[in-house]
Design a protein that fits this description.
This protein is of the alpha/beta class and 323 residues long. It is built from 10 helices and 15 strands. Strand 9, helix 5 and strand 10 form a beta-alpha-beta unit.
Length: 323
């Protein structure tokens, strides 16, 4: 099969190669998926570059996310799964078989049926961003009727955090850096969109909700003053991203607000929480509550340019077309 591989960490142009390699066979409890699209996330280039290295067992096919069709199953998996159109999550976590290849193999629960009418593109955007957004929202209880602030509502995680929070029945405010991203956040359903770079952002958020119950945070250090302006004893700030420099916590102010700070890393989400995320994301998909951000597609042989685009912070999602 054709597959993208790397054997050592480094820049995309130096370590990524498209090769013909032997197709893997599904083991017990696994399914084999013929990929259509492979979705790229920041974690994929950070793993490949060595910025946040993950162990390489001989070689690594990158990417966790994608859409495809199950065409074989391993021992113990119902062969009724063959022919299902699925989206994958964490395909390349502690496994060499990422989705940037004609076939991947994943544990059966990590290939989730895509409801009819949901596009392949949306399916390939879900894995890392939607699972992370879900965990950030519900790790500390349901958000129905709660006030939720999503920092960076036009980012991949931020986008699904808005859409899932609305699906769950929350009131949602979000922050963005400019008009193009504001429009995307409005389309996702945010009740209030605020430019965090403009003076008066804190006042606008306070007028919406004096105290936020959840803050889904992409830049804890940069946004802590804004977050503290809308924090109180019911506030959980849930941070899922590391900034270049770790923030210094103003402990007395955090104590004064009686807030709770949580961190989320998708690789360590408890299995039960991941399964609940899959269930809820599937329900939201079936209800038509999830949409994709603007998509830029690259053919498989332009994998280097695709990684560089994600690394440069392109707006929306980058998908690889699998031949
Ligand atoms: N912990 C986990 O499991 C996990 C899971 C997924 C992603 N991540 C990490 O989370 C980060 C975002 O991932 P992503 O896929 O959502 O990336 P993305 O699609 O590039 O979105 C990031 C968004 O954050 C916005 N942003 C940057 N600084 C901001 C600030 N101070 N306030 C508000 N928004 C800000 C950016 O827009 P502007 O710069 O224009 O504001 C951009 O829209 C990456 O570092 C990624 O590695 C971690």
């Amino acid at each position: 099969m054709k597959a993208v591989r790397y054997e050592q960490y480094g820049p995309a142009a130096e370590v990524l190669r498209v090769e013909d390699i032997a197709k893997p066979a599904p083991g017990p409890g696994e399914v084999q998926v013929r990929m259509t699209l492979s979705g790229i996330n920041p974690t994929d280039w950070k793993s490949r570059s060595g910025a946040t290295p993950r162990p390489i067992d001989g070689f690594q096919i990158p990417h966790h996310d994608g859409t495809g069709i199950i065409d074989a199953v391993g021992e113990g998996v119902d062969d009724g799964r063959i022919g299902q159109r699925v989206w994958t999550w964490l395909a390349a976590a502690s496994r060499p078989w990422g989705t940037a290849a004609q076939w991947t193999i994943v544990p059966s629960r990590q290939a989730v049926v895509l409801p009819d009418g949901v596009s392949d593109e949306l399916g390939a955007c879900l894995g890392v961003p939607a699972m992370t957004a879900h965990r950030c929202l519900v790790a500390d209880g349901p958000v129905v009727g709660k006030n939720v602030l999503v920092a960076g509502g036009a980012g991949a995680v931020g986008h699904f955090a808005i859409e899932l929070a609305k699906f769950f029945g929350a009131r949602v405010a979000t922050t963005v850096s400019g008009p193009e991203k504001a429009e995307l956040a409005r389309q996702a359903g945010a009740d209030l969109v605020v430019n965090y770079r403009q003076p008066g952002a804190a006042d606008e958020l306070r007028a919406f909700a004096p105290t936020m119950d959840r803050i889904v945070e992409v830049a804890l250090g940069a946004n802590l003053a804004l977050d503290l302006a809308v924090s109180g004893p019911s506030t959980y700030i849930v941070d899922y991203a590391a900034e270049p420099d770790d923030p210094v916590l103003p402990v007395r102010q955090c104590m004064g607000a009686n807030l709770t700070l949580r961190f989320v890393l998708i690789y360590g989400i408890p299995a039960q929480a991941a399964d609940q995320a899959v269930t809820d994301i599937s329900a939201a998909l079936a209800a038509g509550a999830l949409t994709e951000l603007p998509v830029t597609r690259f053919p498989l042989d332009q994998i280097m340019a695709a990684h560089e685009a994600v690394e440069a912070g392109i707006l929306g999602k980058v998908l690889i077309e699998i031949p």
